[in-house]
């Protein structure tokens, strides 16, 4: 058996999961078993890694580079990610080479993990992001993915119900936006679910220049996907002069770039910012939570 480099999970992952999380104790042995079974040669652990997974750079038996992603999210989430990547088949997204959902493992083509769309100037990054999204928004076919209605329904039942009283007006507006947008959503497409500049990486030379990674796949309104991108580089945006006006201009540019209805994008951007803000507040992250709610008030 080929042993991987000492697997010291990145600190961001440890902080997010908690140092006592059982997955952190098991991941090294899982990696060893997969390396042996899939005949991989470990190279190094990618840093800084994700918030719920780690990536080990490897070489396949024929010497081709790849990336072994090990996720803490459980077999159902990993199976959904694998199904989405299979559906895209490398068009707009990283190519899936092998999967073992029970082990929480995906073997992926290796991209340039250190180079994301965040390395580009803002306007160029938005143009490239729009190009990627056009490729991802396909018919889902016979799929295992939750719908946007199902996914957001859980947040409404939990986070929204427990929101502080002083946020009642903002929360009710977000709830109303969700109900209105779901009522006339029409036929949905396959969505990335967590599309942002940091989830789009530079690809090898013979591929499209930028490819999406780390989907949380859903089926629904394309504006829901674009709404997450609308608040990218949020802390820079909040610190800049005329932030509220910049937010509205950004929404208009994004909607125009993908020929989407601006009001639908505005509604989902508001809902998603409120949901994320409440999630951060519930986790004790007051600074980011309040920033997200401030963004929602500007939308």
Automatic annotation (TrEMBL):
Biological process, per Gene Ontology: secondary metabolic process
Keywords assigned: Kinase, Transferase
MF GO annotations: kinase activity; phosphotransferase activity, alcohol group as acceptor
Organism superkingdom: Bacteria
The name this protein goes by in its record: Kinase
């Amino acid at each position: 058996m080929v042993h991987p480099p000492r697997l010291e999970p990145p600190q961001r992952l440890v902080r997010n999961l908690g140092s006592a999380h059982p997955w952190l104790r098991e991941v090294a042995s899982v990696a060893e078993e997969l390396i042996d079974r899939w005949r991989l040669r470990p190279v190094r652990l990618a840093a800084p890694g994700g918030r719920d997974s780690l990536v080990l750079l490897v070489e396949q038996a024929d010497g081709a580079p790849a990336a072994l992603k090990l996720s803490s999210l459980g077999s159902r989430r990993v199976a959904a990610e694998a199904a989405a990547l299979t559906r895209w088949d490398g068009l707009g997204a990283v190519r899936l080479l092998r999967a073992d959902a029970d082990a929480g493992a995906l073997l992926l083509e290796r991209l340039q993990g250190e180079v994301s769309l965040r390395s580009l100037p803002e306007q160029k990054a938005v143009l490239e992001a729009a190009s990627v999204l056009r490729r991802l928004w396909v018919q889902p076919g016979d799929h295992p993915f939750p719908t946007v209605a199902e996914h957001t329904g859980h947040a409404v039942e939990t986070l929204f119900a427990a929101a502080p009283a002083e946020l009642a007006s903002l929360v009710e507006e977000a709830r109303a936006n969700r109900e209105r947008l779901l009522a006339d959503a029409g036929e949905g497409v396959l969505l990335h679910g967590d599309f942002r500049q940091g989830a789009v990486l530079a690809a090898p030379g013979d591929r499209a220049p930028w490819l999406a990674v780390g989907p949380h796949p859903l089926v629904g309104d394309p504006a829901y996907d674009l709404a997450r991108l609308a608040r990218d580089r949020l802390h820079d945006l909040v610190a800049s002069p005329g932030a509220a006006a910049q937010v509205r201009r950004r929404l208009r540019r994004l909607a125009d770039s993908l020929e989407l209805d601006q009001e639908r994008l505005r509604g989902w951007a508001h809902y998603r910012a409120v949901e994320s803000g409440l999630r951060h507040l519930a986790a004790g992250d007051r600074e980011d939570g309040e920033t997200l709610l401030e963004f929602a008030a500007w939308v």
